[in-house]
Specification:
With 468 residues, this protein is of the alpha/beta class. The protein has 18 helices and twelve strands. It has three domains: 95 residues, no CATH class; 251 residues, TIM Barrel (Alpha-Beta Barrel); 79 residues, no CATH class. It has a nine-stranded mixed β-sheet. Strands 10-11-12 form a three-stranded antiparallel β-sheet, covered by helices on one side. Strand 7, helix 15 and strand 8 form a beta-alpha-beta unit. Helix 9 packs parallel to helix 12 and helix 14 packs across helix 15. The protein starts with a helix and ends in an 8-residue tail after the last helix.
């Protein structure tokens, strides 16, 4: 009977992932009301009309949002690590009848009234990318993989960017950022380092966003990396398919350059793919599918890395719909990241136990190779760890301890639940001078005991979480 009830629930929602919005959705926005489809679906319009200030947003939205919203947004931006930049495409997909709870608004337009105090263990560059950077703009953490950052700009700025220490313009919250502008001389340093390390077989080209590379630079980087004998795989990382899919369809020079690199990789019996980033099923519409159709016709593989976010995709239903919709348009769900610790975005983070419950209910709704792995990119540079693989999880105090024996053996790495998910007394402890480090030390000690005495792990384990 339980199976029949579960099957009935799935069948009741059957087909929802195929229902892609394809109306003139931008016409609800006063500033875009007279823009026809032919113009709106060009990358040039999307770039030219991107909103970069509260004053500009007020001009575009008019009375769709009240003065209190604009004031709240202005204060939120002052407390955010990223400057404002949002495409007309994304702006038009927001539900302006309920903007405060809208999942797209939550990611790109920070409201001060929604923000929460940062966790006391927050550190800028929490993943310690610069610590593992042998040359500027290159992170070498995993034995056979490097992260290459050729640019420090994006077509749109996510307020939760983990690379807010370097990406985009300087902000009040972060101050002066590391500069990783497009620079051929700097790139040559990265190519030389990769060439000199034969263990490197996999290179991720990110930023910023590879969408912001000129077509000739996109191709230059791809061909240079593929020409290195020991490099077997390259990945272009871009959020562009989510925030500005029109570019794939209208910027023929860029898409052709990408295609030539993929074809060159295939000729060399190597692989070049695209890794993209969607967080909400609401972000996938008709033009997204048309862009993906073109990439599929060109033989270009696209995978998706999602970030688990409160109010965006933190329910089983919302994550199931996202995963199924990605699969429907031929994007392979690859990772779901637990949210990194970034200034000003504590309201978007979830606890480890909440995310594990979502993962449990996502697994099984579609094929295994289309089911993303839920991972923690550990603070301090331990790399990505399966969220289930913690050595110890103190649910009461919200601290999980991981090890990363293949990356940094002998070290321990942490994940912290957001304070809002903890009991009031525990929250007070975290906010008391001297107590946070004590909580951390207790968790590290307990994790060490569990590792040394695995047979006794059950005696140390905390009770399984209960969900109402």
């Amino acid at each position: 009977m339980e199976f029949e009830e579960a099957l009935a629930a799935v069948n009741a929602g059957e087909g929802a992932h195929r229902e892609l919005r394809d109306d003139d959705y931008w016409r609800q926005i006063p500033g875009f009301g007279k823009v026809d489809r032919a113009e709106f679906e060009t990358h040039l319009f999307q770039q030219r009309a991107s909103v970069t200030s509260v004053a500009q947003l007020r001009e575009v939205l008019g009375d769709l949002a009240g003065e209190s919203f604009y004031a709240d947004l202005a204060e939120g931006i002052r407390n955010a690590p990223m400057s404002l930049r949002i495409s007309p495409h994304l702006l038009s997909l927001i539900d302006w009848n309920e903007p405060v709870t809208d999942p797209i608004r939550s990611q790109f337009l920070p409201l001060r009234s929604c923000q929460q105090p940062d966790h006391p263990m927050l550190r800028l560059d929490s993943l310690a990318e610069r610590k593992d950077s042998p040359v500027p703009g290159l992170t070498h953490r995993y034995p056979d993989k490097a992260l290459f950052l050729p640019v420090d700009t994006c077509p749109v700025y996510c307020r939760f960017c983990t690379r807010s220490y370097a990406v985009g313009a300087d902000t009040e919250r972060v101050g002066e950022k590391a500069k990783l502008h497009a620079n051929l001389a700097r790139w040559e340093e990265a190519f030389a380092y990769i060439s000199a390390h034969p263990g490197l077989e996999d290179v991720v080209i990110s930023g910023g966003d590879s969408y912001n590379l000129r077509p000739d630079h996109l191709e230059l980087i791809g061909r240079r990396l593929l020409s290195i004998p020991h490099v077997r795989r390259i990945r272009y990382a871009t959020k562009g398919l989510c925030v500005l899919p029109q570019k794939i369809l209208s910027d023929q020079r860029w898409t052709d350059a990408l295609t030539r690199v993929v074809e060159e990789a295939r000729r060399l019996h190597k692989t070049a793919v695209v890794h993209t980033h969607f967080n909400s099923a609401q972000e996938i519409v008709g033009v997204t599918r048309r862009a993906m159709n073109l990439l599929v016709e060109r033989g270009i593989t696209v995978r998706c890395q999602t970030v688990l976010q409160r109010g965006v995709n933190d329910t089983p239903e919302s994550m199931q719909l996202l995963v199924k919709r990605l699969g429907f348009i031929n994007i392979q769900p690859y990772y779901v990241y637990f949210h990194d610790m970034v200034p000003g975005v504590e309201d978007l983070r979830t606890s480890l136990r909440e995310g594990l419950e979502v993962e449990k209910r996502v697994r099984g709704v579609t094929a295994g190779f289309h089911t993303p792995a839920f991972v923690v990119d550990t603070m301090g540079g331990g790399g990505k760890r399966d969220a289930h693989s913690y050595e110890y999880y103190d649910r009461e105090n919200g601290v999980a301890v991981f090890t990363s024996p293949a990356v940094k053996p002998g070290q321990q790495f942490l994940y912290f639940d957001p304070l809002a998910s903890l009991d009031p007394e525990v929250r007070r402890r975290w906010l008391t001078d001297g107590e946070p480090q004590q909580v951390v030390n207790e968790a590290l000690r307990q994790a060490d005991l569990d590792v040394r005495d695995p047979a006794g792990c059950l005696s140390h384990a905390t009770p399984a979480p209960r969900f109402s």
